[in-house]
Amino acid sequence: MSQTEKPMKISKQLRLQGQGFLLSRNNSEMLMGIIQHFDCGADLHSCLLTLEMIFSTLLKDRNMYIEVIPLKPIEQTPENQYKDWLRNVYEECFTKIVHTMENASPKIQTQGLSTAMNLLSYEGKYPLESKGTFENYVPLSKLKSILIKMLSNKQNNVQLVNKYTEYLLFDDILFFTWKLLPSLTAKSNPNETYIMNYLALLEKLQVHQNNDTKILCSEGNGSFFTFDETVTIKSLNKIWHCVMHWEHTPLTHKKMLIVLLERVLTNLEKPLLLTDFLMDSLDVGGSISLLALQGIFTMIQVHNLDYPNIFTKLYSMFEPEIFHTKYKARLFYLSDLFMSSTHLPENLVAAFAKRMARLALIAPSEDIIIICNFIGNLILRHPGLKCLLNNSDRDTANTDPYIMEERDPVKSNAINSSLWEIKTLQSHVQPSVSSAAKFINTPLPSVEWDLSKVLDKTGDDMFDKEVKKFSKLIVLQFEKPNGASIGKGERLLQFWDF
Amino acid sequence: MAKTKNKKGALSDRYHIKNEPKKLNSFEVHVNKEKLKVIGKKQKNDRGLPGISRARAIQKRKSTLLEEYKVQNKNNVFLDRRIGEKINMDSESKAIARFTALKMKSHSKRSIFNLADDTILTHKGQTLSEIEKFDDPKSDDDFSDDENQSGKLDTNFVGEAHFGGGILKNTGKEGAMTHKDLINQLIFESKKRKAEKQKAKEATLELTEKLDLDWKDLIPLVTKDGKNEEIRKPKVDDYDKIMRELKFEKRGTVSDRLKTEEEIAKEEMESLEILEQERIKRMNKQDTEDTSKLKHRSADDLDDDFIYDYDNDDEENMLSYNKEGEPNLQIQANVNGTVVKSTVNALAEEVQDEEENQETYKDVSSEEELETDSEDNLSDLKISDNESEEENCNIIEEIPVENDTPIRTPKQASLKIETVNNNKESSEKEIEHVEIPFTFKLPDTYKGLLNILEKYDGHQHLVIERMIKCNHPSLSEQNKDKLGLLFAYLLQYLNDLFSDDLQKDDLKKHFNIFQLLVPQIYSLAQLNNQNAHNSMLEVIKEKYEDYKKKHKTHPGLEVLIFFKLVSVLFPTSDFRHQVVTPCYTFMEMILTKCRVNNRKEISYGLFISSLILEYTALSKRYLPAVINYLSGLLHMMIPKIGVKLLKIPPPFKPTSTLLVLLNNYSLESFNSLKLNFADFSEEEITSEYQVRALYSVIKILQQFLEHYIILPSHVEIFEKATYFLEKIPLNNYPREVQNNANCLVEELRKSKIERRLQYLVLEASKPKALRLYEPKIQVVYDGKSHKSQSKEKAHINKLLHKVKREKKGALREIRRDNAFLGRFKIGKQLQSDKERKEKVKRIYSEAAMQQSELNEIDRKKKRKN
């Protein structure tokens, strides 16, 4: 019990001390005591809360406000001295608070951030000194120190960044973050942690103003600044120019591509500069090349990029391993987009169809359905491919004319083949797969299959669907078992000794 | 018009007088003019005889209405029914008429069979019928006792009183009474006598009644001896007894003769054949449906091959409603007796899904244009794909081959088998010792069952068998449900048997229990198939839910047991089966997702592979995951020496060498190359296990090849497996395994060479039928407006019309009646006036005569004067 009581006591004690300090100016030693306690590193959480309480009250009561009259030295009254001292303590404490963001415990990290941001907000609302004509301002130096801590190169600050997104809802913080960021961007090659933190932050930053205007550092409508989108876009371009030239590990490479696709690409001034980067990414393989593929697709679509070997690249991505990756649905989705053109050569499309059919022979059930629909759509778009289903010119073949090992889809001789794989899959154990593969038996429909319906299906979905199927017919085995063996269908006991 | 009326009236009078002339005067015929002549139509009312019909009407009124009018306001009517009084007759003819009337009456229909009706038999003045009433004769007797029966005054008195000289005569006797006294005395005496008589009568009555009562008491005494002898029944003869028994014995109804064994066997075979045919039908369900049966065609089908975009799978579950308005589509699950329905919710969800899909479908066009990647969240890529990452790492690093597991010699293995056998024997012996009661109550709780089964450990199957026999559903209605519960409990029991981490011996024992229990579970399922179906499905669902949480870890052994049970209980060859199809999905998931790192896990996968072989043994259907898995195992047997890596998709690792056999076993012989239960309990992979694993993989692959040889792409299916198999160095394996492997490779090669690929040809589509249109019917205009109304209403309208017409007729009749009566009244008035005038005239004339006579006399007097 004593262990649990102790921290309670300390937090209470600290709060009492803080309140005592606020009551009377003579109790300044109490503040020093709290700061000392804070320095020693114990009970950081409650210390942070107490300091926040003290300084926010001080700021609110304008206890640190020294009126500056232009062309007049500040009077050396004890009042002003006290205020000066307070301000020094405040600055000192702020750096310490920001320092807690490097603490090992994520709880204290986030608390540090929120304390710092709260103090920042109070300072903005009740400035320490009047600056120009505006009543409020954003204490940029403090914001910068916070950002520096967040973009640390020592530890992964995903949690901090997530916490920080709460503050990004305020227009002023968002705007000034954009403004500060170019100066914080590393020019030479930073380490991986820094890049990850940086990209995580960048991912959360939006270029445009928030829908509902909220200002953190002012109680009013924020007349002290205007959200200028050209500034943010400009700084984004500036940042990206640096980011592009960093050295990337596969992890950061991927993250960067994601950020690029989600946030950056639409706002870049000269996106065609990215082409080389994307081309290089395409050769990396795996999910990175897939992301690059998506980028290239956007470039082709929006920015008229011409890239001749894109289909060969896409073709090479269809490997047996794709079924065990997370981006399988994306690949199918993208290739559906790529193949949506009706002006592609038939033998190329046939190669795709044939390759997918081959892959379907070893794919999990849910993917076979996707593939069947995909091939169906291909044939619908390219009526010339009907020879894959209906080839009455030739009779039989010894081997499949299609060459699976050929890297170039055009040379794979797929157009001379036939979709026997789909025929095989008609005897798949799963009734849904089997019926999906039956499309080659009947005349093709006039409307394409909707791929988006099946893309996200997983094995679990299939199970649920089958379980939910209700048929009144209940059929039991009619052959009486002999021990654990069932008559003629028994196979298990051929391989197992019990 | 008045003229014609008059004419008619005259005519009627004439008719009355003339009494129907034979030839119709053409002036008397009224011809009804016809506006529209229809040929061949018979007319009833084309001509009429107004005179005749009027006369007839008047005649009729005279006999009915007039008569009524005459008796109007009169209460009684005197009717003289005497025969012959109305008409003047002489008395003789009157008598004759009366006699004939009497005779006629006796000849009436009713009295025709009363033969002796007219003669009533009497006795002493009384009719026989009266006598035969047998009244109490008591009262009659009284009078016979008395002297004067008649109740008249006695003679003396009469003599004296009536004829004794009159009232005024003095008797002269001294003390003689006066007449008044005498009368008084007389009255007194008669009263006294009456009272005495009454008294005596009452006494006798009393006595007789008493006597009657006494007699009743005495009856038993009197009759006792004689009757007893009569009552005593004669001793029942055995013969009679038997005879009666035989007589009243229940007779057997006529029935077919008993079937001979051969016939029974034949019937069984036939029913099995029918079942088999049904099974094959179910197996090929989809195939036949697609080709032979036309799909549903909407009435709006435009023959343009447009197919409404629905999931092929959903077509069986067409939404329909029953009489109560509930959807027929039901998802029903029976969990230990409680029924869970989830129709509406599930449906609602589906509907929602569909709506969403539609929405997305709508949005596609706009999305495609606006497709900027900011909408896309790239979630799939953000998740760091561990697997691929791991792989990548593995590709880069070369892991040295490790295989320093101690190798158990086959001797030890064989020893083990022997001990196991011993165990089995000893347990068999034990069975004989324990006594098991023949009747069992069905346990109400799972614990109850557990207790019973624990009590008779080793005889669980017998216990269950007897339970089923004692509580057969044909014995009681409730038994069916209870047995259903027992089925669920047994599943739970199996679950508990296999779910713990078991040691080898325990496993063996438990599997023996399972083996023995299977037939009982099978018969239980047959008794209540609905319940078996639902509980099994529920179990599979539950297990899957558990498994879903951790995709990569193998579920417990009990799942394997349930899979096996499914193949025992349900036909696994069906195209779609509610229990089997989810099992396929489940097994596929296990094979593609679960880790393969140790002996236990490999055995698990091999068990499932062989189970899938069993499931598809009849239907010969294809599951890619099995072949992938077996290829993966083969891959694990290849020593990875070269720099070039052999690619293999997860869950296998490209560098795994777990199953590579290092020791030389080529000369050793194994007792059994089959897998066994020990493989489930141990993790470490021994060389002996490696040998057995390869053997099993080859054997299973062989069977799969046999099954799939009909599929056009079987070469592609086995391509990888062949490739890996050829890479495995077979030298170290025992001879038998080597032979099998070579055999398989040979078969695969052969199949590749022999394959004939038939190019796909679409079925020639049927020629389109000309579109048939509905015949266009034009309405013919016939000048009449036909009301379209219901049958009932038409009937009512018809009746109303009739009533109207009848009312008209009736009014006309009433009017005519009034006219008739009026005519009659005025006639009568005229007649009475006429009579009165005549009377007045007569009186006048008489008075005039009188006056004239008086005048005459006066004149005579005057003359005289």
Instruction: Please state the overall shape of chain B, judged from the principal axes of the Cα atoms.
Output: elongated
Whole-angstrom Rg of chain A = 33 Å
Oligomeric state of the chains in view: heterodimer
Find the count of extended strands of chain A (DSSP E, 2+ residues). 2
Helix content of chain A: 55-70%
**Secondary structure: helix percent of chain B:** 55-70%
Q: State the secondary-structure class of chain A.
A: mainly alpha
Question: Can you list the strand order of the major beta sheet of chain B?
Answer: 1-2
Overview features:
heterodimer, A: 498 residues, mainly alpha, 22 helices, 2 strands, 1% strand, disordered N terminus, B: 865 residues, two-stranded antiparallel ribbon, two-stranded antiparallel sheet, 30 helices, 59% helix, elongated
Describe this structure in words.
The complex is a heterodimer of chains A (498) and B (865). Chain A is an all-alpha fold. Among the domains of chain A are: 1-130; 308-468. In chain A, 56% of the residues lie in helices and 1% in strands. Chain A is elongated and about 110 Å long. Chain A starts with a helix and ends with a strand. Chain B is mainly alpha-helical and 865 residues long. Chain B contains 30 helices and eight strands. Chain B has helices spanning 2-18, 50-63, 65-70, 91-106, 128-131, 138-145, 155-163, 179-231, 238-248, 261-283, 285-292, 344-370, 379-382, 386-396, 410-433, 446-455, 460-470, 478-499, 504-527, 529-549, 557-569, 580-593, 599-615, 624-636, 678-681, 687-708, 714-717, 719-727, 735-754, 791-864; strands spanning 30-31, 47-48, 122-123, 126-127, 332-335, 338-341, 675-676, 757-758. In chain B, helix 1 (2-18) crosses helix 2 (50-63), helix 18 packs parallel to helix 20 (529-549) and helix 19 (504-527) packs parallel to helix 21. Chains A and B meet through helix 11, helix 13, strand 1, helix 18 and helix 19 of A and helix 10, helix 11, helix 12, helix 13 and helix 14 of B. Strand 1 of chain A pairs antiparallel with strand 8 of chain B, so a sheet runs across the interface. Chain B: Belongs to the NOP14 family. Chain B: Keywords: Nucleus, Ribosome biogenesis, rRNA processing. Chain B: Pfam families: Nop14. Chain B: Residues 366-378 have a biased composition (Acidic residues).
